[in-house]
Every structure is written in C-alpha cells, then in structure tokens.
Write a structure and sequence with these properties.
This protein is of the alpha+beta class. Strand 1, helix 2 and strand 2 form a beta-alpha-beta unit. The chain is built from 3 helices and 2 strands. Strands 1-2 form a two-stranded parallel ribbon.
C-alpha cells in the first residue's frame, strides 16, 4: 500500500477508525497509534479526514529514526 498515491487511502482507514471508535462505545480517551509512519502522509490524510468530520483524536507515530521524525514534523505541521 502507498498512502502517498492519493488521500483516499487515509480517508478509507479513517472510516475504519471511526467504526472502531463507535464499536468501543465512543470512549473519552481514544488514541490512534501508527508504527513506522514513513514521511507522515498517512497520518496527515487520516487526521484531515477525521477533522472534516468533527473528530479530534490523539495520534501517535512510533518512529525510531530521528531523520524521519523531522520529515514527519514538517509534513504534519
């Protein structure tokens, strides 16, 4: 999969995230965790979709490489 091809990929995953959120009973504390977020485009697309729908969740990217974290911070600024 390549989230860099089109934002619809992130939007599709955001729909699944919302479904899980509903199944869990809309918990007060809901965190999305992405392991190895590459440049951060998937996170950006997911967060953009969710915010357009009025949802604002915590989003954590677990990234061990400092150089990649810098790119993620720029993309997600």
């Amino acid at each position: 999969t390549s989230p860099c091809v089109h934002p619809v990929f992130g939007g599709t995953l955001a729909l699944q995230i919302l479904e899980i959120y509903e199944i869990l009973g809309r918990p007060a504390h809901f965190v999305i965790v992405e392991a190895g977020g590459a440049q951060g485009y998937l996170a950006k697309d997911i967060l953009n979709y969710l915010s357009k729908k009025g949802y604002f969740f915590e989003y954590w990217i677990i990234e061990p490489l400092p150089a990649i974290r810098i790119i993620q911070e720029e993309v997600l600024a």
